[in-house]
Amino acid sequence: MTYTVYLRPSNQHFTVAPQETLLTAALKHNLLLPYNCRGGSCGACKATLLSGQISYLEQPTCGDKINSAQGDILLCQAIANTDLEINSTLISRVCEISDIKRMPCRVERLHKLSNDVMQLWLKIPEHESLYFQAGQYLDVVLKDGRRRSFSIASTATELPLLELHIRRVNDGSFTQTVFDTMKVKDILRIELPLGMFFLRHDTLLPILFVAGGTGFAPVKAMIQQAIMENRQREMVFYWGVRSKQDLYMHAEIVAWTKTYSFIRYIPVLSDPLPEDNWQGKTGLVHEVVSQDIPHLVDYVVYASGPPVMVAAAHQQFLAQGLPAEQFYSDPFEFAKDKK
Ligand code: FES
Q: Ligand 1 within 6 A of 42 CB?
């Protein structure tokens, strides 16, 4: 038994199977609706239910971002109990992105970038045709069906290789496997390309990247893609970490700023160690940005990293006058396992 979902205002429709989320079904039908984390935590997939009944696979964790009384629903968690009519704006495919694919890949290389960040290179099968935008992410699909999401730190020009930056989380999760037992030639299952976090070129406003920790990964990809495309758009990159050893690709970024005058880089340490002898910026990265750039309206912001940092940046920047449509984010980094 399937249900039909009618989309307004586009008048498109698609079918959805029992227990299948509305977002999954729409993407399967090649209908691109807004989304990001696919885990019920970011609110990006919010839509309005005009008629019909839904229920949730799991109660969303971003309840504060939706008003159920007004018909708000989250497409990534909602399943249909009847035919539905929903209001959600279709996104036109402004750039080349493959349909979402699941495929095996091989661990090609593991390299420790710092005490708790691993650079993992994966290799997809040579025959796979894949295209993604710098900044998108992939899911590693574990044997029990759970997923872990990681931003892709490389660009599509590096295919069949994909670079990930994985921070160790000591909770017995997949990331511990990466550090402790994973080896070259291991096989993983991945699903990609995912997410809507990529550079938009519908404006020439300068770009302000604000990243926390391994939130640097998608920023790295986006800057590299912009360099390759010779965009020369002003880019300012604030990178917030705890101490100096967490700036795991500092030298590479400094090298970019020396070669490309349109890139500026401001590292920010929240807890510098005495031996860091740190003379640079200190504090929470979003607060430093607010102090340094009172006129945020002159920028388009791309924020990535821990959800709490992204949420704080979003709240503060909008309060400071940044229009909501000039804020893009990738807030899934530590979101819970997804089915
Ligand atoms: S809450 Fe649905 S995509 Fe993030």
A: yes
Closest-lying ligand 1 atom to the alpha carbon of residue 46 = 2
pLDDT of residue 337: 45
Give the residue whose CA is nearest to atom 1 of ligand 1. Answer: 40
Q: Is there a domain that residue 339 lies in?
A: no
Q: Is ligand 1 within 6 A of the CB of residue 307?
A: no
Last-in-domain residue among 26, 56, 87: 87
Per cent of the chain over pLDDT 70 is: 96
Residue at a domain's end among 87, 117, 146:
87
Please classify residue 276 by burial: count the beta carbons closer than 10 Å to its beta carbon, then call 0-12 exposed, 13-18 middle and 19+ buried.
middle
35 lines ligand 1 (CB under 6 A): yes
124-133 pLDDT, tens per residue?
998 998 889 9
Give the ligand 1 atom nearest the CA of 38: 3
CA distance 293 to 267: 15
Residues spanned by the domain of 324: 207-330
The conformational region for residue 50 under phi > 0 = left, psi -120 to 50 = alpha, else beta, is alpha
Same domain, 225 and 119: no
Residue 323 and residue 234 in one domain = yes
Task: Please report the atom of ligand 1 found closest to the CA of residue 40.
Answer: 1
Residues 46 and 114 both lie in one domain:
no
